[in-house]
Each structure stands twice: as structure tokens, then as C-alpha cells.
Fold:
Amino acid sequence: MNNRNIGAFDISSRDGGVEFRRVSMSSGKTNSMLVDLTMMQFTLGLQKWLKREGLIQDIFPTLDADHREFVVSGITPSEWAEMFAPDDDTELNNPEVA
Structure:
């Protein structure tokens, strides 16, 4: 297994890709996600992105939006869903509020 740290980013090669770990900007928890890239592809792309040499979608065009958002913020799809879940007390969900 090949591990690398680039700044606050922790990267490990796995069967089927690279496991990427980072702290969520939302929860402060360390989350991980598997991306379907080689260690070299991911490391080179991450270095380019950290140097602001391009947009995340241009640097990692094969990653979907959830994976790219995770690279940027460390926030998982389930954390996004939790953050933006409708609140039972909002005006939209309360017929008594006019």
C-alpha cells in the first residue's frame, strides 16, 4: 500500500483507486472517499488544484460532482443532505404560517 500526505490531505492507494481522506469543513470529522484514479493521477491533479492551476472540474474531469466537492471541502453527500434537509419548523413546512 502506498500512502502520501500532501498538506492536510491523506491519500492511500487501494484496489480500484485511491482513498482520499480529509477533514470536513462542515462537521470537522475526518471523512474518506474512494476515487477511481491512480495514485499518480490523483496526486498530480491535487497538486495542480492546490497551486490554483485550474478549476477542479477541469483538473479532475472524470470525477463526478460529489467526488470533486469532497476534494474541495471534505463534505460527503450524506453531510450535504443533512445540512440542507428541510426543517420541520420552516415556513415551507408549516401551513399555519401565512
Q: What stands out?
A: The chain has a mean pLDDT of 87. The CA atoms of residues 1 and 14 lie 7 Å apart. The beta strands are 3-6, 9-14, 17-23, 30-35. The first strand starts at residue 3 and ends at 6.
